[in-house]
Amino acid sequence: MTLFLQILWDWLREWTSLLRSPCFPVLFSLSVYVGCCFPYICLDLLCSRLALVRRFKIQPQSKVTWEAAWRCLCKISRNHVCFIFPLSVVHWYWKPVVSPPVAPAVLAVVKDVLACLLLFDTQYFFWHLLHHKVYWLYCFFHKEHHVYTATFSLTTEDTSVWEMLSLSFFTTLNPVLLDCHPLTEMLFFIANIYLSVEAHSGYEFPWSPHRLVPFGLYGGARHHDLHHLKFKVNYAPYFTHWDRLFGTLHTQKKSRNTETLKRM
């Protein structure tokens, strides 16, 4: 595996001029995001026709329209061009890209990516909690992300400019704080985008990440779907430990128990 990482890194270093371009972060971010969304967009198109797909949808009654998908895509593209690109130029000038000849070891990549995800999870939890508890922060900055009570993949970055820039700042800052290898930084970014899209996808499969992580330590799509549905629960984007500590964790099992009590 380490050899594969070295081959991958050697290949990427051949594109050094592109990696060092101020345009690269925007192109990379947008292409990774759309690439992660694409399989779920295909499922959304098939959902109304195939019962097999519909059985994995968390809220099967919800439908994704072309109008909503196109609106999200246009908004995301506009935000990247108008806001992410200027910041990429500033970052490019302030911190030039370095290309060390040796790729990181596999264990180092796993450790650093996990550390970045845990750090981002912590930052986002407190940022998210604050923007729900402080009324004016919610109204002016976070309300845009709660337009849909049933999310789909493209709504992941359907946010206000402030929210997009805040989360982009955390994503960029964490690998710098942990002194990650440039390849590790790219892999963390890909993992972070994929997990964010998966959490907003509206689908739960047998191979979904939360089913692969034991003891309920990871929330996943159903965890975040309940946040958009119930509003004041499940603030953490990925893991569940902060919600457990603050008493804001809500599960499907709890929802069923509550509905049972109401019927009684």
Shape: globular
Largest sheet: none
What's the domain count? 1
Please work out how many helical segments DSSP would assign.
13
The share of residues in extended strands comes to under 5%
Task: Give descriptors for this structure.
single chain, 264 residues, mainly alpha, globular
Question: Mind sketching the topology for me?
Answer:
Blueprint: H1 2-13, H2 16-19, H3 24-47, H4 51-54, H5 66-94, H6 106-133, H7 135-142, H8 161-177, H9 182-200, H10 209-212, H11 220-230, H12 241-246, H13 252-263
Helix pairs in contact: 3-5, 3-9, 6-7, 6-8, 6-9, 9-11
Structure, described:
This protein is mainly alpha-helical and 264 residues long. The protein has one domain. The chain contains 13 helices and no strands. It is globular and about 50 Å long. The termini are far apart.
Short summary:
67% of the residues lie in helices and 0% in strands. The chain is mostly helical and 264 residues long.
